[in-house]
Amino acid sequence: MATVAENVQPVTLSNQEVLRYSRHLIMPEVGMEGQLKLKAAKVLCIGAGGLGSPLAMYLAAAGVGTLGIVDFDVVDFTNLQRQIIHSTEDVGRKKLDSAAESIQGINPFVEVRKFETRLTSDNALSIFRDFDVVVDGTDNFPTRYLVNDACVLSGKPNVYGSIFRFEGQASVLATKDGPCYRCWYPEPPPPGLVPSCAEGGVLGILPGLVGVIQATETVKLILGKGEPLIGRVLLVDALGMKFRELKLRKNPDCPVCGTHPTITRLIDYQEYLIPLGDLPKRVHELDSSREIVAHCRSGVRSAKAVEFLRQAGFHKVQNLVGGVLAWSDRVDPKMPKY
Ligand SMILES: [Zn+2]
Asked: How far, in Å, CA of 295 to CA of 305, rounded?
């Protein structure tokens, strides 16, 4: 595969860097050539949270020259159980500032670029433009789909990871010939259907396990060495301590990376929809320029919501036909029914 190594700039290592990276330099798979590739590489981490912490720390320690971080959150006490890039005294500070300080403490040779913003369909492509690899450390579906689509549209590999309770997943998506997240799950689940870590909890160590796998894959992509997790999803079960693998094929009918894509620009998914009875008086809260998916248990009430919204001038409204019950039966059996 084409790797980010193609973008290598002519750089050298200082004596201090040679000392710092000596355990890499003696490895034939890295050596001076590989270390210079790492130094020239620009990696964008989406989120400075559970996955972003180990990712950014290890990539910094490994000598990745430029680390971008996208985050708009503030450190709170509930983060400290797993987000090890932040310390107790950082509570109340911007995660970006706290993360940047930790990274510089680990390796002052790293250039940190801070993006204090929520990733949106308006800014994703321009933020991604200057980076070679994007590493997804997000914890919600709207951003995960946005990262995937922006990676496909801009031709950047998406090093994916996700975590929940004792279970995690990792893969390398959206490479030139490899599958993307939508090849696997073409559309996001209905909002609120899949519990988040805030609702379901997560073992504090789990993002460490998965984030380190993502960091490893990122370094391999930069070096152009080994077998990346392309076309494979690694499933981590920390409770059973089992690692399994799923094959993931590129789907020719994929809505974003298939042969006839229907998604050719970025979409922001709304994370909520208002109860049907409240819709007439709250319709002004919705943005008619954005894609809206209405859902309910069986698809009947949401069909009424769609009808109402279309009459109100919303054109990008869709109904989840069959509702949550059908989604659970046909798409993801693990999805709780209600
Ligand atoms: Zn795809």
From this structure: 9
Separation of alpha carbons 80 and 269, rounded Å: 29
Residue 133 host element (H or E):
strand 133-136
**Is 197 considered catalytic here?**
yes
C-alpha 257 – ligand 1 centre gap (Å)? 4
pLDDT tens-digit series, residues 35-90: 999 999 999 999 999 999 999 999 999 999 999 999 999 999 999 999 999 999 99
Given 151, 180, 183, 197, the catalytic residue: 197
Per-residue pLDDT reduced to its tens digit, 184-220: 999 887 766 666 666 678 999 999 999 999 999 999 9
Measure 253 CA to ligand 1 centroid, in angstroms.
8
Distance 49 CA to ligand 1 centre (A): 26
Total-model pTM: 0.81
Whether 292 contacts 267, CB under 8 Å: no
State pLDDT tens for residues 240-251: 999 999 999 999
Tally: H helices and E strands in the chain: 13, 10
- What is the Å distance from ligand 1's center to 151 Cα? 11
Quote the ligand 1 centre to 256 CA distance (angstroms). Answer: 6
What pLDDT does 333 receive?
Answer: 60
Q: Which helix (H) or strand (E) holds 66?
A: strand 66-70
* pLDDT single digits (tens) 283-299: 777 777 777 777 777 77
What does each C-alpha distance from 40 to 7, 34, 129, 320 come to in angstroms? Answer: 8, 10, 15, 45
Q: Which string of DSSP letters, residue by residue, matches 2-23?
A: --GGGG-------HHHHHHTHH
Contacts 24+ apart (CB under 8 A), 326-332: 326/298, 326/299, 327/189, 327/190, 327/193, 327/295, 331/185, 331/189, 332/185, 332/189
